[in-house]
Amino acid sequence: MPINIDHCRQHLKESDLGQVFIDELGWDRYSSNPIISVDEHDWTLHAIAQKRGMVALVHIGKIPGYPTRRKIEREITKIAHEHLIVFIDSKKTTQIWQWVKRETGKPTACREHTYNCNQPGDALIQKLQTVVFSLEEEEGLTITQVTGRVRAAFDVERITKRFYDRFKDEHAAFLKFIKGVPDEELQRWYVSVMLNRLMFVYFIQKKGFLN
Length: 211
Description:
The chain is of the alpha+beta class. The protein has helices at residues 5-13, 17-24, 66-77, 122-128, 143-154, 156-175, 184-206; strands at 28-32, 35-38, 41-44, 46-51, 54-60, 83-88, 94-101, 109-116. It is built from seven helices and eight strands, in the order H-H-E-E-E-E-E-H-E-E-E-H-H-H-H. Helix 1 runs antiparallel to helix 2. It is elongated, with a radius of gyration of 21 Å. The mean pLDDT is 91.
C-alpha cells in the first residue's frame, strides 16, 4: 500500500501523528497515557497507535534534553518493550523521533530523527514508507516483522554501511567493463561519475519527477 505523500506531509506539518500512523501507515488505534517520573519530573506520554505490540507514543511539551529522553525511553520499555517515541515541542514546530535498537549481548543504540515543520520532511517520509502495513499483510504479521521494518527505517548506521558496501561492489564490477580510458585513476573517476548520475536519476524517478 503506497503512502499518500501529500497527506502524510500535511499531517506531519500539523503534528497530527495519529492520522499519520493510522490513516497513512495502516497501524491500529491504541490509547494509553503513561506518566513517567524522571529526574523528579513527571512526563506524560500519549500512546496513539500500535502494530502487533510495537507502540507509538507522543510527548507534547518542552522537549527534554538527550540524557532525559534516554531515561524516559528506558522507563517506557517497562510498559511497552518495543516502541517509538516522538517528542514534540509546545508550539508543534519540532519533532524528535526516537527508536532504540536492542541486540542481545550489545549495548542499546539510540537512533533519533529531527523534523521541523518548515521542512518538506522527505527524509522522514522516506523512513515512514518502510513501516506501512497493508490489509493483505494483517493475517500473518508478527511483532518480529514489525520490529524488523522499524529497524530498517530508523537504523541509519546499518543502512549507510550496507549502501557503501553495495556501492563498492558495483564500482568494482563496473570498472571491469571500462574500455578506451587508459589511465586507471581516470577509469575510477569515470565510474564514480556514472554511478552518481545513475543514482540521481533513480532518486528523481523515485520521487515521481520522472515517468
